[in-house]
Each structure stands twice: as C-alpha cells, then as structure tokens.
Amino acid sequence: MKCKSNKWIFLTLLMALTFIGCEKDNGDSTIESETIVYTAGWSKNSSGVAIPGYWKNSIWNGLTPLSVNHYSSVNSIAVSGNNIYASGCSTNSAGIIVPGYWKNGNLIELPPIDPTKNAEVFSLVVSGSDIYAAGTCDINSGNVPGYWKNGVWNALPKLDAAKSSSVVSIFVSGDNIYVGGNNNNTDNISIPGYWKNNVWNALPALDIAKNSYVQSLFVSGNDVYAGGFCLNNSNISIPGYWKNGVWIECTPIDASRNSEVKCITVSGDNVYTGGYSINSMGVRVPGYWKNGVWNGLTPLDGTKTAYVYSLEISGNDVYAGGIAYNSSNIMIAGFWKNGIWNALPSIDETKSSHISTMIVVEN
Questions:
Q1: In degrees rounded to 5, what are phi and psi of residue 297?
Q2: Among 193, 295, 317, 350, which residue's CB has the most CB atoms within a 10 Å radius?
Q3: Please, are residues 3 and 9 in contact by the beta-carbon 8 Å criterion?
Q4: Residues 6+ apart with CB under 8 A from 67
Q5: Helices (H), the chain
C-alpha cells in the first residue's frame, strides 16, 4: 500500500505540474514585443558597384537594380503592416538614374519629368493607403523639386527657375504635406526651408549672404522642426535646428570647426539631432545632440571620419545609424544603440557600405 500510495501521489503531482505549465504557456504568459531594426542604403559588390538594399536586424536583404553594372541606392525606408517600402534610385543600362521604390523587393519606377534625365527619390512615407515619395527631377534648365503621390508627380515652386533646389524629407500630418529642402535664390545662395501644401516657407539664416541647409524634417503636433546647419560669416558650418521658424544652435566640439546636423527626431519634450562635429585634430566625430547638448559616439578608428545619418528613439533606447571608416579606410555601415557600435555585414568585406536611413519597429 505504501508504494502504491507514493506512485499515486507522484502521478498526481506530475499531472498538476503539467496542467500548470500548459496553462501558463497558453493563458498566463506575457508575450514580449519584438524590436526590429531596419537600416537601408547600399553595399558594394566585388566589382565595386553599389547594390541597393536594407538590413533587417543586421541581416542584409539585397534589392534587384535595373542594372547590376550601375549605381543604385536606398535613401528611405518605411514599414506599413506587412509591407516594406525602400525608396531611392536605380541607374539603368543607359546610365540614367531612375526614381522609384521597392515594395517587398519589387521595383516600382516613378515617372520623371524627362525620362532622358536623372531623377531620384530621397524620402518616402506611407499614410493610410497613400504613398508619398519626395525627390527631384532634372530638366534642361536644372532640377525641379517635388513629390509623387501614388505615382503622380507634383512639382514644388522654386525661388528661381534657373537655379538649383533640393528635397531632403517629406512628412505627412493630417491633411498637411510638409517637404523639407533648400531653394537657391537669384544670387545662387541656398535658402533653407520647407514647403507646406506646396507653399514655400523660408527659414532664417545666420548670414543672408551665406548658404544654409535643411537636412531633415520632423513634425510633432503643431510644431515643425527642421535640422541642418548655417554657414556663419567665417564660412564655418554651425549645427542646429529650426523650431517653428526659430533657429536654435547646437553646441559643437570646437566652435572654430565645421559641424552638421543631418537628422532630427523628437521624443516627448526632447529634441535629438544627429550628425558630426569636427574635433581639434580635424577629425569628424559621430554623435548626436540632445536638446542642443553634444553626445559623442565612439568611431571605429579615432583618426578616421564617422558620422550619424539617422536617429530613432524607442523607449529609453537611442539608435543612431551611420558610417565609420575603419583602419583600412573602408567605409563600414552600422548603428550605435545606446552608444554601442553594431557593424552591418557587407556584400564584400573589402568594399564600402553605406546607410542613409533607419527605423525601429516594435511588433
């Protein structure tokens, strides 16, 4: 009887533990969200040709270009539901740069103003069922800024039709379409600003006789942020950003040397701007400014160039995507997460890779 009783007790406990385990797995377990980091740009193959693509959690996903013998690049990436959009350009066999985007790996070409001239997409956003792709189209008298909405081209006004202009980013907020960029005036000076619903809004420069540039745009509620830099009267590029048209400088490493803001994002009450600042040794140091205060990041080689192209804030984590040259002078694509460098694999480790953008998605 004693042995039989012990056996029964053992089986009872085993069944109870099994039941508890199944109940925890099926009903009581907490499903943790997955963080996915997308970085996009290009990687050179063994022939030295830039192949477009993106890294998903550091795994390379090459995209098919129009010609494997010519340059192609991803300049912007967006994720909507199960769809991945990678926009940029691909050079065809005739050597013409063609604008478009890859949707789940399939290239969708966008119609340029003149198919015999170069055109390129620099920024893409998905808003509901609409796809907005901002870029420029070349014509005989220069380039034209604008954006494609669901494949239809919308030109944006220039200060001088015969002068250059550029588009860097597009942002859709409600019924408003914001496109950040730069417009050259009749004196061929670059004026920073943005178009809101096709109307140009110039931003003030430090010196109206010097070039200034918007390099990134972010809209939060009713606030419009534009990150970039202004040349001062000594021709030194001063990093900073405009908030609702007011210029706010960011503190550089060395005020006598160039610094640039290349990207901007806002999280709560905090404004993050990423780029580089040149130190006293003349080296471009990667980093970001949080509310104007510099946070330097560690490069691969302290004597080589490195900088940040894209910033993402996810919870308490700061992701900074960019490039760093190694001791062999090869450009390595990667990102810093909370200051820790994560190199991204190249098609050919002896060739350069580059990222233009990154996004962080919580699933």
A1: -115, 150
A2: 193
A3: no
A4: 90, 91, 92, 93
A5: 2-23
Q: Which domain holds residue 25?
A: 1-30
Cα 90 vs. chain centroid, distance in angstroms?
Answer: 18
CA distance 340 to 172: 32
> Order of strands, edge to edge, in the sheet holding 72-80?
72-80, 83-91, 97-103, 106-109
Q: Is residue 71 part of a domain?
A: no
Number of domains in the chain: 1
pLDDT for residue 33: 73
8 Å CB contact between 281 and 323: no
pLDDT tens string 273-323: 999 999 999 999 999 999 999 999 999 999 999 999 999 999 999 999 999
- Is the pTM higher than 0.85? The answer reads yes
DSSP 346: P
Question: What is the pLDDT at residue 258?
Answer: 98
Residue 22 forms part of a structural domain: yes
Domain-embedded: residue 214: no
pLDDT tens per residue across span 105-129 = 999 999 999 999 999 999 999 999 9
* Arithmetic mean of pLDDT, 94-99: 98
Q: Which of 304, 320, 301 is nearest to 312 (CA)?
A: 320
Are the C-beta atoms of residues 228 and 237 closer than 8 Å to each other?
no
Distance CA 205, CA 97 (A): 32
Domain assignment present for residue 225? The answer is no
User: Which amino acid is located at 342 in the chain?
Assistant: N
Q: How buried is residue 118: exposed, middle or buried, by Cβ count under 10 Å (0-12/13-18/19+)? A: middle
Q: Which of 187, 223, 193, 217 is nearest to 205 (CA)?
A: 193
